[in-house]
């Protein structure tokens, strides 16, 4: 079978990046603004996007929660002179893994088909969610 | 292939940084070892072996916390990627205000790290990093204390205090039982250890007490020492018990640096799905061509209306960076728009943030060795003068005015959490630094902490402080003037630049009352239009604008007497301030 040019299309070019900023209205807890940015109006449903950000906010709230998990972890760490950190993953790290998986899944199912890509905010120090908008060459044809 | 998050560029090796931490380690380990070797054997025989075991446990706990405080990343933010800073620096504000639990808090632009510092974040000049929930830079552990390691630092202080008390106490027991044999080496060593313990007890216990109060009140050292909450409300507190449990029991915060980045395995290729457009959207689309750009440019123009080109460079401001990085999409200032719709704009805050590649041009605010305080608002005068600025700036500013009870001089001397950028103004080093990063406070070199305003103050209190600010600002202008003379170009070259800048300003602020370039003091008419800005003393008003939410600027406009003269004398060419 011959390779047509279609099959060898490179990844779409980046057209723009939108940065979803942190929402500090409740202090320094990790929350992102759910306000729908105008650049995405033509690319994705408002509801869909807000749902993603809300879910992320919930996951981060869960990570920072002062629950029994974190108390036990703290006590154990103290008792073992913090050597437990060498073998055990902290609650926050576990949640971060969950978040990374969620973002990957959202990208695969929802964002990539629309020419968008979410970057895990941990790569930006939990300051912004970077949404990369790809150029839709099909429009220019 | 996975990629590590980029860390800051390697810094020059400075052996002097390691002196305090080496001394601390030596004293701690050395004294304790002597205690165990000379005092404990007798104690375990005479009383019980629980004593050395107990002391060993406390000592190990102290050492573990010491190591964690020393080696753990305090919460360093990675530098922002270039793409994030897509706004034209020329138009971007130096500060962004955000409302936290009803209180306006300012986020300052960090020119080193290229982002607006999150609340409670501060840039450490020693480490040259922005640190989350910055507490202070501790020389005894040679590390910043921030969100991730504050808990260990606090526990280190508690356990060290306990350990010192134990060593001193048991040593005393030994000495009291060996009153007749004080000439033995064991007794001598015990007494020596007791002396060391007694000596360190006072500062350590004092610092511990200080931090207990801070934890209970939910404040950082930085906030306490710069007086951010004096007379105001702390938006970051959740009550004493919650504050304590947050420090001690929250899950270990993740580090941002040195993380493995997952490479996107997702393929993104057109054709892309599109959401269905509504009728209105379709209509708007048709009408939209070209309009969006205009809309945007008026917005930026209006932001410039409010922008006080307060400290203009000697050189004319650079042309706006072309936004051609991503052509083809309507440009919307997401950063600005998201904040503009959520927080009232702070007109006087629109200062120009100089572009990155002009290393020199002014981020003078970071010039303060201590904080990134905006009140200096003086942009540097350009590359050619950077050498003089740099040399003047490297001096460490002693923090004589900022002693809190129970703290030693040494532990606060290195509270410097702000890096003066290499090109930034040494002007700042002439002033006594004592402000918080986000706050306007005026500190004249002579009087400590006079007349500063906290962003958390209500507008009324801020108004009352205006009087103080005016006084403070008058003294402010003199060192400033002196600096100007030393650094500014000869007056003859001033006026043309001044004219140019004025021209430039006027182009942007068509709605302003016409300004007379030669008059240093703004006419009452002009003054009523917008908040004053240029001379650093004037910068005080910025603090006030911060503290009120959307109040009209005109009420808060101190016009320090000094400001006008400086303007007339040095001229804008000195790179000092924008003409009114």
Please give a structural write-up.
The complex is a heterodimer of chains A (141) and B (580). Chain A has 141 residues and is of the alpha+beta class. Chain A has a domain at 44-134. Helices cover 43% and strands 13% of the residues of chain A. A three-stranded antiparallel sheet of chain A has the order 1-3-2. In chain A, strand 2 (116-119) and strand 3 (128-134) form a beta hairpin. In chain A, helix 1 (46-64) runs antiparallel to helix 4 (91-111). Chain B is mainly alpha-helical. Chain B has a domain at 16-76 and 134-249. Chain B has 17 helices and nine strands. In chain B, strands 2-3-4 form a three-stranded antiparallel sheet. In chain B, strand 5 and strand 6 form a beta hairpin. In chain B, helix 1 (18-46) packs across helix 3. Chains A and B meet through strand 1, helix 2, helix 4 and strand 3 of A and helix 2, strand 2, helix 6 and helix 9 of B.
Q: Would you count the extended β strands of chain A for me?
A: 3
Order of helices and strands of chain A: EHHHHEEH
Task: Give helix % range of chain A.
Answer: 40-55%
| Distance from first to last alpha carbon of chain B | 55 Å
Are there runs of chain A of 5+ residues with pLDDT below 50, and where? none
Give the strand order, joined by hyphens, for the main sheet of chain A.
1-3-2
Structural class by SSE content of chain B: mainly alpha
